[in-house]
TrEMBL record:
SUPFAM superfamilies per UniProt: (Phosphotyrosine protein) phosphatases II (SSF52799), PH domain-like (SSF50729)
InterPro entries linked: MTMR12-like_C (IPR022587), Myotubularin (IPR030564), Myotubularin-like_Pase_dom (IPR010569), Prot-tyrosine_phosphatase-like (IPR029021)
Superkingdom per UniProt: Eukaryota
Lineage: Eukaryota, Metazoa, Chordata, Craniata, Vertebrata
UniProt protein name: Myotubularin-related protein 11 isoform X3
Biased composition (Basic and acidic residues): 646-656
């Protein structure tokens, strides 16, 4: 195939395997790319490879061909079937390559194939510019973000699609929405003088004074004291906090304030050791690296041993562990009126993961499109999850994609309960990919303090060079109010329509759920009961805080306490016990308890195997036209396999599903 020329630029063939498009599409590498890389400055550069665009399309970041330099895992020059060279800054090419392979850290693979004569001089310059810019971007510690042409053309302030929880009014509106009458919005951290990793505002018990909050938070790791994450309609409260700072020496008033905040007005309190039975950050990072290496097309794993290699990554095991623990915590929150406290030393990783999953399992409103976005904004962005560090953008050693692990868990729920979620798999894919695209401040900082500071100094940008979008935006700055939830800036209307799950049952809307404070929904716990939840079982405790007669059960990871054996009964059976309380209904309305055994946990093929177009065939499509294409594909399989079936089998097995299953 002859190379295509565009604007006098370098001719090239570009192919990839996007899940939303046909398996192979050809485009051209525009010369303006070399201009964009040639004027690269410290920051983030978006590598955009052009493809045939609709003239009415106004979203420059809506294609699988858009690559951000920090998202590139490695670049390789390839010639033939055996000659492959890893491209590094300053390394000379040892042969004349036929194509360049761009391996994305988000499991994408982009192939840039040049004409038969090999790399032209301009193409060589472009390739080495990508290598140098990628190396420099990986060393940069601060990223200014990139500008969106459509945003630059807007006039006046842009209202965010969901509340960004940057004002006390946003928090008060959300509190009323949850019906948390015994809680209030505290402005104690309005100037970030309590904790820079916490938001300006958060929820504390109504009877607790701000002076008590300030003193109590000083006795927790990084100042992240107990605060409300979610109020269950039945009366329970889900809290999260950091680990106890045992080196402090609180007085009696401070201890009473800490205990009062942990109890939150309940007589039954359960402390959850969050990290117990969950992988470490190092484990998550190692599993993700192994998974990425296995799923790329150039994986060295033999086909007959591929499933064993997948099991060896441990990624699905970690997904299973997270779902199991979240399911148990959902039972704790739902079964009795109590205070359930998630405690993690840093309170910025698995606390957010478990809190989010618990709400998805227990609250139908969190399964709507707007509800899920609000959930991520509250439990991850506003709560101070270190996106920049965990996604490896800064090059720090603490890289661990906990947020991507959470998205995989959500995808598992979507597969098991397809009618319960308003959003689709394609929305999760867009969110998965947006975590590595630095076009807004949502995932571009580690703390709300850093995000707020940058929004006041956000006066520089790195221009995206792509055909039709080379015009500089007005004002020469990026709107600091833009968030990842402004999907229309990066995705077309047709793509946004795919965010909605066509199988969603409207009867599962929040209005048809449980009335607020239903009196017979839960039972109160015994008076002044304190429990530790660890290894799937509840253990009674004598006290809440570690500063009295005995050391903290959580501050020392409770290793000195005899471990309870994991019960053969599910936690739901242990908690609800006799059926007289529930009658004929074993579970409350709206609660989902996922399966997490064996084949119930599956590989997210549309995400992890997107570099393999042959695997993408046969996956369900989100549109009618897509379903028609899939139907044609299945009919073609039937035509190929039907002659192989003997007359006897054909007479006995006329079910097309049976024939298709035989082809596998």
């Amino acid at each position: 195939m002859e190379p295509e020329k565009c604007g006098g630029g370098v001719g090239a063939r570009v192919s990839t395997s996007p899940p939303r498009r046909r398996s192979q599409t050809w485009g051209s590498l525009d010369q303006s790319l070399s201009r964009g890389l040639g004027c690269w400055s410290p920051g983030v550069v978006s590598l955009a490879v052009t493809w045939p665009r609709d003239a009415s399309q106004e979203t420059p970041l809506s294609s699988e061909y858009d690559f951000v330099l920090v998202n590139i895992g490695r670049l390789e020059a390839v010639s033939g079937l055996s000659r492959v060279q890893l491209l590094r800054p300053g390394s000379p090419l040892k042969f004349t390559p036929e194509e360049i392979l761009i391996h994305g850290r988000d499991f994408r693979l982009l192939r840039v194939a040049f004409e038969a004569g090999g790399l032209e001089p301009q193409a060589f310059q472009v390739t080495m510019a990508i290598v140098r810019a990628r190396a420099q971007s990986s060393q940069a510690q601060q990223y200014a973000g990139i500008s969106l042409s459509k945003a630059g053309q807007s006039s006046g302030p842009r209202k965010p699609p969901i509340p960004l929880l940057e004002t006390s009014e946003d928090w008060e509106t959300e509190r009323k929405k949850q019906g948390a009458g015994s809680w209030r919005v505290s402005p104690v951290n309005e100037r970030f003088d309590v904790a820079t990793s916490l938001p300006h505002y958060f929820w504390v018990p109504k009877r607790t004074l701000d002076s008590e909050v300030r003193r109590a938070f000083g006795h927790f790791h990084q100042g992240r004291g107990p605060r409300l994450s979610w109020h269950h309609p039945g009366g329970s409260d889900l809290l999260r906090c950091g680990g106890f700072y045992t080196a402090s020496d609180p007085n009696k008033e401070d201890i009473r304030a800490v205990e009062s905040m942990l109890q939150a007005g309940h007589s039954d309190v359960v402390l959850v050791d969050t990290v117990d039975e969950l992988p470490s950050l190092t484990d998550v990072q190692l599993a993700h690296l192994k998974l990425r290496a296995l799923c790329l097309p150039d994986s060295s794993a033999a086909e007959e041993k591929w499933l064993s290699a997948l099991e060896g990554t441990r990624w699905l095991d970690y997904v299973r562990s997270c779902l199991r623990k979240a399911s148990d915590i959902s039972v704790l929150v739902t079964s009795r009126v109590r205070s359930v406290v998630l405690q993690e030393r840093g309170d910025r990783d698995f606390n957010g993961l478990l809190s989010s999953l618990v709400q998805l399992l227990s609250a139908p409103e969190a399964r709507t499109l707007l509800g899920f976005q609000s959930l991520v904004q509250r439990e991850w962005v506003a709560a101070g999850h270190p996106f920049l560090t965990r996604l490896g953008v800064t090059g720090a050693s603490e890289e661990a994609p906990v947020f991507l692990l959470f998205l995989d868990c959500v995808w598992q729920l979507l597969q098991q309960f397809p009618a319960e979620f308003e959003f689709s798999e394609f929305f999760l894919l867009a969110l998965h990919d947006s975590a590595r695209v630095p076009d807004t401040l949502t995932f571009l900082r580690d703390t709300p303090w850093e995000r707020g500071k940058q929004s006041g100094q956000f006066n520089s940008y790195t221009q995206i060079y792509t055909a039709g979008y080379s015009q500089l935006p007005a004002g020469n700055s990026v709107n600091p109010q833009l968030s990842v939830w402004d999907w229309d800036l990066r995705y077309s209307s047709e793509q946004i329509l795919q965010f909605h799950n066509p199988g969603y049952d409207p009867e599962h809307c929040p209005d048809s759920w449980l009335p607020r404070q239903q009196p017979n929904f839960m039972v109160s716990g015994p008076p002044s009961s304190v429990w530790l939840f660890s290894r799937g079982a509840l253990t009674p405790l004598n006290q809440l805080c570690p500063w009295r007669d005995s050391p903290s059960l959580l501050a020392v990871s409770s290793r000195w306490l005899p471990r309870p054996a994991i019960s053969s009964e599910s936690l739901a059976d242990q908690e609800w016990g006799l059926p007289s309380h529930w009658g004929a209904c074993p579970l409350p309305p709206g609660l989902l308890l996922p399966g997490y055994l064996g084949p119930q946990i599956r590989l997210w093929r549309r995400c992890y195997l997107r570099g393999r177009p042959e695997v993408q065939k046969g996956l369900s499509a989100p549109t009618i036209s897509g379903l028609q294409d899939e139907l044609s594909h299945l009919q073609e399989l039937l035509r190929k396999w039907t002659p192989r079936i003997s007359p006897e089998d054909h007479s006995e097995k006329r079910d097309p599903n049976t024939i298709v299953s035989q082809s596998r």
